[in-house]
Amino acid sequence: MILISKVATIFGSTGRRLRTWPAIALAAALISGCAGDQHQVEDRPQKYPDNYKTELLAFLRSYLNDPTKVRDAAIADPVLMPTSVLIGIRGSGAGGGRGGRGREGGGPSEGDDGGLWERRVTRERYVLCVRFNAKDRGGDYIGVKTGMAIYAGGRFDSFNDQPQGACDQMEFKPFPELEKLSR
Asked: Which position among 52, 110, 153, 172 has the lowest Cβ density within 10 Å, counted as fewest Cβ atoms?
């Protein structure tokens, strides 16, 4: 606060200081938001995803080009692990504070006309890995693919179709529900 008032003094007369104060406060809020640790861990514990199979199947039904006759389906049990997530921080055009946060993907919030800043943070989430061999649009099998489903607050949050080694050590078991999926 002292630094801000000294910067405001540099701008001259009292009238000018009053006009520049909102801009200075906005700059200070933005700088202080960026100064924190980029890899902080969320404090609240995560809820175990009780309906993880049902939610994953609902997602895969719409995600796969052809959800029928999937082969070689396997799934690992959910495991709590740190994941890097992208969060969106919206700044208000008028007030300059931190606006609402959408889902962790960083979507716009309703009624907020400010710009979007994104940053990566590390959060503990339940993660499960799934393997499958699905058909492409032409009806040909594409080969076994691995994906990672991320659950926040006990609910399906996102899917990463290129988990880059996160699923290498997981213990997979058959996932017949995926092989029996219909449109």
From this structure: 110
